[in-house]
């Protein structure tokens, strides 16, 4: 996890007040195989749904960017490019 990237992204999306809940929602996702775009998408969806149950609304693109940062990528596009998939 790149905490620095993640905290910058949380700040950029003006979600500082929800930072702890975002970190908790990101935590616990298990990768059973080499990380791929499908897993990133699943993680983003899970995080978005978890936050939603707590009354925190984030856009799909925001959840993707937060997950990409959590996994150490500069942004979503960079993650997709590095993982070698045309999916976005």
UniProtKB/TrEMBL annotation:
Domain Glyoxalase-related protein: 36-83
InterPro entries, sorted: Glyoxalase_8
Domain of life: Bacteria
Pfam family, one: Glyoxalase_8
Protein name as annotated: Glyoxalase-related protein domain-containing protein
Lineage: Bacteria, Pseudomonadati, Pseudomonadota, Gammaproteobacteria, Enterobacterales
């Amino acid at each position: 996890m790149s905490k620095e990237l993640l905290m910058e992204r949380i700040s950029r999306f003006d979600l500082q007040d929800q930072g702890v809940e975002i970190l908790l929602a990101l935590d616990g996702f298990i990768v059973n195989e080499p990380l791929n775009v499908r897993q990133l998408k699943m993680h983003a969806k899970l995080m978005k749904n978890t936050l939603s149950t707590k009354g925190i609304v984030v856009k799909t693109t925001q959840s993707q960017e937060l997950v990409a940062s959590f996994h150490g990528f500069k942004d979503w596009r960079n993650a997709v490019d590095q993982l070698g998939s045309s999916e976005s």
